[in-house]
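Subgroup meeting minutes
Present: P.N., E.W., G.H.
Scribe: E.W.

1. P.N. recapped why we're keeping a running log of single-chain structure predictions: easier to compare across weeks, and new members can see raw inputs and outputs side by side.
2. G.H. added today's entry (290 aa).
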Amino acid sequence: MPLVTKTISEVREQVAAARRAGRTIGLVPTMGALHEGHLSLMRRAREECGLVVVSIFVNPTQFVAGEDLERYPRDLPGDLRRCDEVGVDVVFAPEAEEMYPPGDSTWVEVTGTLVEGMCAPHRPGHFRGVTTVCARLFNIVGPDRAYFGEKDYQQLKIIERMAADLKFPLAIVPIPTVREPDGLAMSSRNVYLSSEERKAAAALHRGLRAGEEAFAQGERNAAEIVRAARRVIEAEPGVRLQYLELRDAETLEAVERVARPAVLALAAFVGRARLIDNVVIGGADRQCRG
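Output recorded in log:
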């Protein structure tokens, strides 16, 4: 069973001991409710690092008004069993007061095109919370490598930018999206879905694949690729699209024609669950692995 700690000081002690022993440090930041997607990050970290630290922290600063902070799924005993199964060394599971002591007033925020579209307009302040907590975790743990899933594509690009701009001496390692057999991207929020909603949610992946297929057949007009995906998704009455956008895969700028890799990304409500997903087209097929 991994060492479980709620304190910054103890995490730093464990990391310092590993450093003295010449071990590399891997960090997997999570909000818990672990599933196979998270475990894929941990397995990669286990392969590449001498000490694997997993943070389990439902970060309050990345939830906007009206979201599911209080009801976000939590299962620390189950999470610890899963961490043990993949050989995690240290689980850092702090209380909010440990990460945000009274009087704290410093935020870390990325600006520019990375936060102008996709999820950002619909969740004001969300990514400021994400980058702030990740900057704190990077400072606390001091990892050589930190692992993030490509399902949260905009988050991944924002964290890459933040880490580069602040000169954190670490590598951000992206890991492909893990999917259910019908293509639904694994997410902690999938537990919110009823059986009927779960069937409806599969339309998200079918729509993204329709966009991929349009590209594969020679379509390069962004609006037509989006339209092909939208037709499939909107045919499912149980899905309410929040956005469906095609953006440059690196800068996240809107594109009119696909001349280089682009990300086709969406957010949708299925029942009470807000789900996100994406595929990258015009480049290596990393996103649609079943």
